Amino acid sequence: MDTEEKLKKLKDTITTLESVVVAFSGGVDSSLVAKVCYDVLGDRALAVTARSETYPAYEYEDAVKIAKEIGIPHMTIDTSELGIEGFAQNPPNRCYFCKSELFGKLKEIARKKGYKNVADGANLDDAGEYRPGLDAAKELDVRSPLKESGLRKSDIREISKYLKLSNWDKPPYACMSSRFPYGNSITEEKLAIVASAENYLRSIGLKQFRVRHHDTIARIEVPSEDIPTLLRNGRRKDLVKKFKEIGYKYVTLDMEGYRSGSMNEVLSQQNNKKG
């Protein structure tokens, strides 16, 4: 299918929603859902963004900006993942607890305001990854227009660019909780340390990165082509100094480079041993 055919399929799917509350983070996926929902349904579509300890301020600012760009009515709610029983202990199904609370709140908003459905930004590629949040969406009958339309991440960027969404090429973002190994508790203090470290990487011009938090060790992931950026012109020393000021004792660079969901690699290894 060409871009227009893919877009038409998505519009046809969204037409079946009739009216919808969109779980809106400001990322590429939820932005496309919000954009097409607003184009198709007009004011029968509402974007809702949840602010919490695991959602950085700069991401929220981006979400507000994109919502204004789209024109869709936009609502902000406050949530606290750390207050959800079981979440802060950081089990492998941590995302299930988070999404259950979020989607539950969005369903309640939809009920009170008269919207028929709740929709998220899950796409076809997500089905091949470990994403416990998908179980929560299924249990609460949350619709996934991108996945239902058979769209993958590459299709989403293609359509977003076609529609001139300014964030069509935005790097993928994951909840800050993904920076911690499973079983290591998550606290506001730890989240603040990781946020400071990642803000520094952003300040030196990097766009895609993760700081994985291993107690006193920071494991930095950047795409392999960006590794020289961290090493040239004395930047390595500046980075180490900054990270130690933030609170880390050791600063490491993951030579395997950036990869989405690297903390899940441990789960795969454990499952292989059991097999």
TrEMBL record:
Residues covered by the NAD/GMP synthase domain: 16-81
Pfam families linked to this entry: NAD_synthase
Superkingdom as given in the UniProt entry: Bacteria
Protein name: NAD/GMP synthase domain-containing protein
Species this chain originates from: Candidatus Brocadia sinica JPN1
Lineage of source species: Bacteria, Pseudomonadati, Planctomycetota, Candidatus Brocadiia, Candidatus Brocadiales
